[in-house]
Amino acid sequence: MSKLVWDSTGERLYETGVKQGVLYPYAENAYGTGVAWNGLTAVTESPSGAEATPLYADDIKYLNLLSTEEFGATVEAYTYPDAFAACDGSASLATGVSIGQQKRGLFGLSYVTTLGNDVDNNDYGYKIHLIYGALAAPSEKAYATVNDSPEAITLSWELTTTPVKVTGFKPTASVVIDSTKTTELKLAALEDILYGKDGETPGTPRLPLPDEIATLMAVGA
């Protein structure tokens, strides 16, 4: 085994940005057709739980019991697609008229972050992030007068999630696909599912479940 080396050329990695947001409303026991989410400014992933509870016996620390880990996130945007209104507790009373405090719909979400390094900068690669079983808490909307330093209103939602089944693993609410660790062919096939494909019968954008992704991205597939 050779000696460890730090900061080799091409290995100084970083992650930045957020783009290509897609909303997948959940209805009739399935994730529906994906719609583009314009104006996405930030997604802050906030896992919680996995806290240790120590147990003592025989005058020593016997073991640690870990609480269940949960996945949450905060989404910030300047706007949202019409399909998100039901996920945000709004309903249409009449054309152009909406009401709040209604039932909040379940949804899935995908977005892309950029991978960079010291050689290719932001062209090194990217990660596709998928979130399942999300529910959005009410957002704060701070309206302010137009002045000499105008700012657009930023909307924000706290997301909680319900994990989905994964064969051979514990349920999960998040999946991340790294473009630098798979093939272009597999990645293109996955993106055709997530974002749709022009002129194809199965071209409607949809959110695949983890088991389908595992099959698609498997070695030798």
Q: H/E series, N to C? A: EEEEEEEEEEEEEEEHH
Overall mean pLDDT stands at 91
Head-to-tail CA distance between termini: 32 Å
Q: Beta-strand percentage?
A: 35-45%
Low-pLDDT runs of 5+ residues are none
Number of strand segments: 15
Radius of gyration: 21 Å
| Individual helix count | 2
| Envelope shape | globular
Largest sheet: 9 strands, antiparallel
Structural class designation = mainly beta
- The portion of residues assigned to helices is under 10%
Task: Describe this protein's structure.
This protein is mainly β. The chain is built from two helices and 15 strands. It has helices at residues 184-195, 210-217; strands at residues 14-27, 30-31, 35-37, 40-45, 52-57, 60-66, 72-77, 91-94, 97-99, 107-117, 121-136, 155-161, 164-166, 169-172, 174-178. Strands 1, 2, 3, 4, 7, 10, 11, 12 and 15 form a nine-stranded antiparallel beta sheet that branches. Strands 5-6 form a two-stranded antiparallel ribbon. Strands 8-9 form a two-stranded antiparallel sheet. The longest helix is centred in the C-terminal third of the chain and has 12 residues, at 184-195. It is globular. The two termini are 32 Å apart.
Provide tags for this entry:
globular; mainly beta; two-stranded antiparallel sheet; 2 helices; nine-stranded antiparallel beta sheet; 15 strands; 221 residues; 44% strand
Secondary structure elements and pairings:
Blueprint: E1 14-27, E2 30-31, E3 35-37, E4 40-45, E5 52-57, E6 60-66, E7 72-77, E8 91-94, E9 97-99, E10 107-117, E11 121-136, E12 155-161, E13 164-166, E14 169-172, E15 174-178, H1 184-195, H2 210-217
Antiparallel strand pairs: 1-2, 1-3, 1-10, 4-7, 5-6, 7-12, 8-9, 10-11, 11-12, 11-15, 13-14
